[in-house]
Each structure stands twice: as structure tokens, then as C-alpha cells.
Specification:
alpha+beta; 4-stranded antiparallel sheet; 2 domains; 11 helices; 5-stranded antiparallel sheet; Jelly Rolls; Arc Repressor Mutant, subunit A
Length: 294
């Protein structure tokens, strides 16, 4: 059946060009009204989609199986999943389309978020609860920020996207009875916080293990079971992700970025970047900005 399901970047558009955005946001009525309120089965190869619905009704169809939409709700659809929608005429909300390379966790990796992102979900939001209310408000802010074109827009969109996905996953997993108190999961959350605070200091994996009160071997075992990476690789990925973010979304020179990331020698930063990506920071920046139409 897959071969009969069209693949789009944005539904109904076949431009033949590479995508010129990392995140796109539009209202649901703006596109569905053009198609008689029905989005026929299709898929996206390189994009993850989030629909936030705060009014109306309808069905989300994943691989031929319908799921009733009761707002407020969040629908998440990973790449390469056949999906479609049937909406009532009073539907309201918006759809966010984002390149999977810009997600903080990859759908299908062994982290809790990555596992959740790998499957389509329809998550109902009880906005009387704190996490669900925050998820709804964060998605609303994302939609407003996308339309604003104000300074700091890309950084805020990135932050809102990450927050909304983490909150929605937490709401969904709680509804599914997932155990949020798993000891190793808590350690992973603590590790992520420590890395966020100290990655610019280039602390070794042993430092993080000591901070968590466990051995380096135990830390690596936990990290690999959750992410598929070793502890050192996880720290390196954080440093590389931040380097890429600054290269794309700031006007700082490569030398300035290297100092911001704790490299005493810009030449060493360049060697680090080439080892991880196969390209110099400058060449990668030019290519990525061209790809995103910046």
C-alpha cells in the first residue's frame, strides 16, 4: 500500500526542490479548507509533524486506523508514517512541520523521548493539569512566534518546540501508565542537566559519573541503554549540536563561536568540527544556510 501513498514536504505540494525551511507553521483551516476538510493519506520522508487542535472535531488516521479527535489535543506524526485527517468545518488550530534533524531526540533512538517520537500519537490535553496546560500554551506561543518575525525568533522556536514535545510526551506517558520514577531515567535527566551546565568546560565522562555517584562504567551502560551512545559520545553530540546552532542562527565568527564553546584554540575547534562532520565550520555554515534559505 505504501507505494500508492504520496510523499510530500507540505501536503499537496510537489515542488521538486529541497526544503527551504527547518520549521514551518500554518493554521489547519488554511490548508484543509482547500481540500474539502479532508487530508488524504500521505507521508513525509524527512519531516516530523505536530498538530495542535483547540476547537472542532474529526479523525486522525494512522495507517488506515481512525482515532477520534477531541480538543484540546496534540497529534504527533513521525516521518514515513502513512497518515491523513478528516476535519469538521469548525476545526481550529495549527500544524507544525519540522526537519527531523532539528529534533533534540531522533525518533526511534533508545531514549524515552526518542521511543515515543517513533510512533504516531493523539494526546488529549486536560488543561486543568499543569503539564497539559503548559504544553497547550507553549504550542500557542510557538504559532504566534512563527508569525511574528521578531528578533530571536529561531532560538525561541527551537526552545518552544523542545518544550512542547517533552511536555506532550510526559502527558501521554502518564496517561499510558508509564513509570516516571525509574532510577536510571532520573539519572539520565540529571546527566542531561549537568551536561547542559558544563559542556563548555569540556568535562570528561568521569566527572559526570562522579557527580551522579556512580562509576564511569555504570554511567556508560545507562547512557547506552537509553540513547545508543556512550557517555563521551553524548557529551560530544551536545557540543556539536550547540556549535551547529550558533553557526546557523548567529552572526558570530567561527573564532568567536570556538571561544564561546570553551575551545582555547580556534584551530582545534575546526579540527573537532571536521572530525565530526567532514566539513569545516565555515563550509558547513554556508551549505546549511543555503539549504534553509537563510
Amino acid at each position: 500500500m505504501t507505494k500508492n501513498v504520496p510523499t510530500y514536504e507540505l501536503y499537496g505540494e510537489n515542488t521538486g526542490r529541497k526544503p527551504d525551511f527547518w520549521l514551518h507553521c500554518e493554521t489547519i483551516p488554511s490548508r484543509s479548507s482547500l481540500h474539502h476538510w479532508e487530508i488524504r493519506p500521505h507521508r513525509h520522508d524527512s519531516f516530523f509533524q505536530i498538530l495542535y487542535i483547540h476547537a472542532g472535531s474529526g479523525d486522525a488516521v494512522f495507517d488506515g486506523t481512525p482515532h477520534a479527535i477531541t480538543p484540546p489535543a496534540v497529534i504527533t506524526v513521525p516521518p514515513r508514517v502513512n497518515h491523513g485527517f478528516r476535519f469538521s468545518r469548525d476545526i481550529d488550530g495549527f500544524v507544525i512541520t519540522v526537519l527531523i534533524s532539528h529534533l533534540k531526540a531522533s525518533p526511534g533512538d533508545r531514549s524515552r523521548l526518542g521511543t515515543w517520537l517513533a510512533e504516531p500519537h493523539l494526546t488529549l490535553l486536560d488543561t486543568q493539569t499543569e503539564d497539559a496546560a503548559h504544553a497547550a500554551n507553549t504550542l500557542k506561543r510557538l504559532g504566534e512566534e512563527f508569525a511574528s518575525h521578531r528578533s530571536g525568533r529561531n532560538d525561541l522556536l527551537d526552545a518552544y518546540l523542545t518544550s512542547a514535545l517533552l511536555l506532550t510526551a510526559r502527558v501521554a506517558q502518564k496517561a499510558d501508565g508509564a513509570n516516571p520514577g525509574d532510577e536510571n531515567e532520573r539519572r539520565m535527566e540529571m546527566l542531561q542537566g549537568l551536561i547542559q551546565r558544563h559542556f563548555r568546560s569540556h568535562k570528561p565522562a568521569a566527572y559526570y559519573a562522579e557527580s551522579l555517584g556512580i562509576s564511569s562504567t555504570h554511567l556508560s551502560r545507562i547512557v547506552r541503554s537509553r540513547t545508543g551512545y556512550g557517555a563521551h559520545e553524548l557529551i560530544t553530540r551536545k557540543l556539536l549540536d550547540e556549535a551547529k546552532r550558533q553557526l546557523v542562527f548567529t552572526f558570530a565568527t567561527v573564532q568567536e563561536i570556538s571561544y564561546r564553546l570553551g575551545f582555547a584554540d580556534p584551530a582545534y575547534f575546526s579540527r573537532f568540527f571536521v572530525k565530526q562532520t567532514g566539513q569545516t565550520p565555515r563550509a558547513w555554515r554556508i551549505k546549511e544556510r543555503e539549504r534553509l534559505g537563510m
